[in-house]
Fold:
Amino acid sequence: MKTVKEKPEENVQEWIQTDDNQWVRKEDKHQYWVIDVFKGPLLNAKRKVIGTAYFVKSVEVNLNNLTIAQIEEEISAYYSNGLDEIIKTYKDEWKQIVAECIAENEQYDYDRAYLKNQKKLDKHIKRLYGIERTY
Structure:
């Protein structure tokens, strides 16, 4: 079983906004923290749609805990040529891209708190993660 392992990195980096609704921060050489925002249906107790809301997903990805085969499985929906394609395309940033793919595969928890508008979302992610949205 091949695994991805290297010595830990000293410097934790700042949040990088990868698109309008996603931020990534490198925690260590193979560890990333991904914040992903999804605008989706707001459901009542009877599971009836009563509006829309923003849901925030926080995913910590430790590539040290995954085999190459597991990484290939996680990225297969996004890159048909697998890890080789990501490494060739993104060079030194390949681990971040893999972390983003893994985070996007994680389910949103609809039972958690939701935010009804953009202003509340912005306050929430700033308070919890220190992220200031840019538009």
